[in-house]
Write a structure and sequence with these properties.
alpha/beta; Hypothetical Protein Ychn, Chain: A; 2 domains; 5-stranded parallel β-sheet; 5 helices; 5 strands; 48% helix
């Protein structure tokens, strides 16, 4: 009887540990739930692609909630021209920012097109190299999407 009691006790202890551990893991996941993080790459000067990018911002924030998704629109190469203060799509920048998206200009591409910060739309951020920024974000676990 002693041996059965010992085996039974071990089984109960193992079950309690497993259940408690599972509960701890589940609690840990809910407390540490990472927000979604997305980089939208816009590397051409095409109004349709920019419209798609802004629609993706809206769709992501509708799906996850404004505070549950981080979004960056990174413009480089020909896409940098759409970040000027007089671009056709600059009217949508404010709406994207209101939804929590950061709009980021590649200074390398600005130099290529001889653009200065004074030529750019208000309230955008800058990185030295758009591609390097995106590579860094990818290493950090961000999802890269090209609309």
């Amino acid at each position: 009887m002693l041996r059965l009691d010992s085996v039974l006790r071990r089984a109960v202890v193992a079950t309690v540990i497993a259940v408690a551990g599972a509960g701890f893991v589940q609690t840990g996941l809910s407390q540490d739930k990472a927000r979604e993080r997305v980089v939208l790459q816009v590397s051409d000067d095409n109004d349709k692609n920019w419209t798609t990018a802004f629609n993706v911002v809206n769709n992501l924030t509708n799906a996850y909630g404004k505070g549950n998704v981080e979004i960056e629109l990174v413009a480089f190469s020909d896409g940098i021209q759409s970040l000027t203060f007089d671009s056709k799509v600059q009217g949508r920048f404010a709406g994207a920012r209101e939804r929590g998206a950061r709009i980021i200009a590649c200074e390398n591409s600005m130099g290529r097109f001889k653009l200065k910060r004074g030529d750019m739309a208000a309230d955008i951020d800058y990185v030295p190299t758009g591609v390097v920024h995106m590579m860094k974000r990818q290493r950090e676990g961000w999802i890269i999407i090209r609309p």
